[in-house]
Specification:
Number of domains: 1
Radius of gyration: 17 Å
Order of helices and strands: EEEEHEEEHEEH
Distance between the termini: 51 Å
CATH topology: Serine Protease, Human Cytomegalovirus Protease, Chain A
Strand content: 35-45%
Helix content: 10-25%
Structural class: alpha+beta
Shape: globular
CATH class: Alpha Beta
Number of strands: 9
Number of helices: 3
CATH architecture: Alpha-Beta Barrel
């Protein structure tokens, strides 16, 4: 089988921490992409479980080029919205520095998934409903296929990120106490 790619837009926001922290959705469930595919909830579950059992990771690549890893995905999981990813573009890697500069300039704003389709069906509108995918990589790319997926936040340092996490935790605790 052939490796497939799906693209999604990063949006305007990134966090900076030891390079660039990228955080957002690489795939959004139930949304039809420009290729006519709709990823279903749970489509990545088996793949992520198998990767985790083997100690493997989803790779962070530049433009789907397996010869150009540019960072690491520290977190990859499904939630109710889609496939959430959080990772770091490494400034010690030449292509990583290029990616950081292009993202900061607004020239690159897409994420894309590389995967193999395990299970899919067609609906009455001719769309392919993807119910199980073997996820291989998430790339930073020029042209997104799924514009609905976005990066969530932008900051200038790891301290800002830590403070935001602390603020979120305190707000969550306050909501539990009040509500």
């Amino acid at each position: 089988m052939e490796l497939e790619h799906k693209f999604c837009k990063l949006g305007e926001t990134l966090e900076l921490a030891e390079g660039v922290l990228v955080e957002g959705y690489a795939s959004v469930f139930g949304k039809c992409d420009q290729g006519g595919d709709v990823v279903q909830p749970g489509a990545y579950a088996a793949s992520l479980k198998a990767l985790n059992a083997k100690g493997g990771t989803v790779k962070m690549l530049w433009q789907h080029n397996p010869a150009e890893p540019i960072g690491v995905w520290d977190t990859v999981h499904e939630d109710a919205r889609g496939l959430y990813v959080k990772g770091r573009i490494l400034a010690d890697v030449e292509k990583g520095r290029e990616a950081i500069a292009l993202i900061e300039a607004g020239a690159i704003d897409g994420l894309s998934i590389g995967y193999r389709t395990v299970k899919a069906t067609k609906d009455d509108k001719g769309r392919r409903l993807l119910s199980e995918l073997e996820l291989w990589e998430v790339s930073l790319v020029t042209f997104p296929m799924l514009p609905d997926a976005r990066v969530l936040a932008k900051g200038d340092s790891s301290l800002d990120h830590d403070m935001r996490d602390l603020t979120d935790a305190l707000n969550h605790a306050r909501a539990l106490l009040v509500g």
